[in-house]
Amino acid sequence: MAATIAYEDVEVGTELPAKTFPVTRATLVRYAGASGDFNPIHWNEKFAREVGLPDVIAHGMFTMAAAIQVVTDWLGDPGAVVEYGVRFTKPVVVPNDDKGALIEVTAKVGAKLDDNRVRVDLLATSAGQKVLGVSRATVQLA
């Protein structure tokens, strides 16, 4: 399956549909099982606080994966992502309640590149704080 977005139809500044991802403690347990990352900072409040965190935090790779979903949903093809990188700036703190935390992701086309590729710049926040810095994906368009 190829990207459904045509290079000619995209301009620098084109905004992708924003998305919000809820994260609860149950989400973290499921992610730990799928990823094999059972670090106690992701499930044990007492341990997380002992190492200086405010509470249990989401896995960085979970946060990174949630953010790129905005891009793959827009593209219609996860295989069209050529390169993706982020810098982790703040943890996503996940309280032990029914609401948990929210990761809010916005993205826009930051540059048109050669060979029908574009750079997409992402912004991921949680509780009003930027959780991913310099988050960028290079994608192949039709």
CATH topology: Thiol Ester Dehydrase, Chain A
Order of strands, widest sheet:
1-3-4-5-2
Distance between the termini: 11 Å
User: CATH first level: which class?
Assistant: Alpha Beta
Strand content: 35-45%
Backbone structural class: alpha+beta
Task: Give a written overview of the molecule.
The protein has 142 residues and is an alpha+beta fold. The chain has one domain (7-23, 58-140): Thiol Ester Dehydrase, Chain A (Roll). Helices cover 23% and strands 36% of the residues. The chain has a five-stranded antiparallel β-sheet. It is elongated, with a radius of gyration of 16 Å. The mean pLDDT is 96.
Short description:
This protein is 23% helix and 36% strand. It is α+β, with helices and mostly antiparallel strands and 142 residues long.
Label this structure with key terms.
single chain, about 140 residues, alpha+beta, Thiol Ester Dehydrase, Chain A, 5 strands, elongated
Blueprint of the fold:
Layout: E1 15-23, H1 25-35, H2 45-50, H3 60-75, E2 81-88, E3 101-112, E4 117-126, E5 129-140
Antiparallel strand pairs: 1-3, 2-5, 3-4, 4-5
